[in-house]
Amino acid sequence: MDTKKVGFIGLGNMGYPMASNLLKAGYTVYGVDVNKMNEKRFAEIGGNIGFTSATLPSEVNLIFTSLPTPPIVESVYLGNEGLVENGKTSLTLVDLSTVSPELNKTIAKAALQNGTQYLGAPVSGSVTGAEAASLSVMVGGNKETYDFALPYLKAIGKNIFHVGEDHGVGTVVKLINNLMAGIHTQAVAEALSIADAAGLDHNIVYEIVNVSSGQSDVFRRNYKNFIAKDEYYKGAFTTELLLKDLRLANYVSNSFKTKLPLGEALVDYFESNIKGYEDKDMSTAYLMLTEQKVEPAK
Ligand code: NAD
Known about the structure:
By secondary structure, the protein is of the alpha/beta class. It folds into 2 domains: 5-166, Rossmann fold (3-Layer(aba) Sandwich), CATH 3.40.50; 172-290, N-(1-d-carboxylethyl)-l-norvaline Dehydrogenase, domain 2, CATH 1.10.1040. The chain is 49% helix and 13% strand. It has 12 helices and 8 strands. The protein has helices at residues 15-24, 36-44, 70-78, 101-113, 126-131, 143-154, 169-197, 202-210, 217-227, 239-256, 261-273, 285-290, and strands at 5-9, 28-32, 62-65, 92-95, 117-120, 123-124, 135-140, 157-164. Strands 2-1-3-4-5 form a 5-stranded parallel beta sheet, sandwiched between helices. A 3-stranded mixed beta sheet has the order 6-7-8. The longest helix is centred in the middle third of the chain and has 29 residues, at 169-197. The N and C termini lie far apart (73 Å). The structure holds nicotinamide-adenine-dinucleotide (NAD). Nicotinamide-adenine-dinucleotide (NAD) is lined by residues 9-15, 32-35, 38, 66-68, 72, 76, 97-98, 123-124, 126-127, 237, 241. Residues 168-286 form the 3-hydroxyisobutyrate dehydrogenase-like NAD-binding domain. InterPro entries: 3-OH-isobutyrate_DH-rel_CS, 6-PGluconate_DH-like_C_sf, 6PGD_dom2, 6PGDH_NADP-bd, HIBADH-like_NADP-bd, HIBADH-related, NAD(P)-bd_dom_sf. It comes from Oceanobacillus oncorhynchi. This is 2-(Hydroxymethyl)glutarate dehydrogenase.
């Protein structure tokens, strides 16, 4: 089997630029997406299309997935027409999506029983990181399988870590990261709402905080790429996906019996206020807060 052939399922905000970078690195890439417009734009830059999760495994030795939610990941891997059912011994499956560590482990068990290798390998670095092939990738799974997948991972990311042999352990790190990204996102929203009330120019606040102790990469990203441009769609990590990850972080915390006072409060807050902001970037937490209609006091 040609090792330069690779499959990619889920050509969305993250998947499309990652699959594009595999093409640029010289791989022959077979792209699959339920949204046929996404497959079409991938074919326009040289990707192969026309396959499904059932037919892709016979074409390649490695398949990446970058899918939105745990139930979708579960069906693509474990469904009747799924990757595991149609796998083979020479196949390695690498899930770049953010799911629960339990789902990573369930899929790994089913895949290994079928003789197929599997890695849980969530990524961080936003759409800009996916475009620049500079993502961080945190991998859980067998070290030999990791070594096999490493050259492919280097085409999409810059900082690649083998966290451990447990298939869900990379995801635990990813959820820690996104819990922090979520809390920072809400901190940015609250900070700018005070700036508005005080009549302060956002740019001045950003410039000062950026060289002071409140500085964060999330402030840079959310402010520079979205809030300052008043543009919340292009390059998005949607509020809906952030809420998914915050719920997963709370779920993991409960399973370890640790406490997340802010994490829990943030899930409650987003659940009550997300309507109308689901498909916009997470930085829209600023609008969620400032556009809120406050009932006048009686
Ligand atoms: P997205 O919704 O933009 O892309 C997901 C793609 O999967 C879509 O194109 C969709 O049509 C496709 N899809 C859905 N169901 C499918 C199926 N059954 N078969 C094939 N394709 C299917 O989401 P995204 O922002 O690219 O995120 C993908 C994953 O990466 C998520 O798990 C997310 O949490 C994670 N992630 C996202 C970012 C980000 O900045 N957007 C950063 C890090 C990690």
